[in-house]
Specification:
The protein has 105 residues and is mainly α. Strands 1-2 form a two-stranded parallel ribbon. α4 links the parallel β1 and β2. It is globular and about 35 Å long. The protein starts with a helix and ends with a strand.
Length: 105
């Protein structure tokens, strides 16, 4: 998926869920998705393998809790795996303080 298709699809999904993201953040979301999907070919970081499901199941689902956070919230994402919901929340609001915690075995 190229950036233009990503931007259009992501924007549609955000609107369906009454969410909005700063336009300048779209590229960050896109780059993170490409990076995670690339790493997924080397090690299994997520069961989601296609871009459209990635946007819906990782980004939209992660951002659904954004309305419950203050602009300067402190959040701990325990069991973050590939960084969800922590990374999308940080991309959504750079002012929140997020700690990502995960373990292997």
């Amino acid at each position: 998926m190229d950036f233009e298709k990503f931007e259009c699809f992501f924007d549609e999904e955000l609107k369906k869920n009454n969410l909005s993201v700063k336009k300048e953040s779209y590229k960050k979301f896109y780059d993170y998705m490409i990076n995670v999907l690339d790493w997924n070919t080397k090690i299994n970081v997520t069961a989601v393998r296609d871009e459209e499901n990635f946007i819906i199941k990782h980004y939209i689902d992660s951002l659904m809790i954004s309305g419950y956070l203050d602009k300067s919230s402190k959040v701990i994402d325990i069991g973050t795996g590939a960084g969800f919901p922590g990374v999308p929340l940080k991309l959504f609001n750079e002012n929140i303080d997020i700690t990502l915690i995960d373990s292997i075995n």
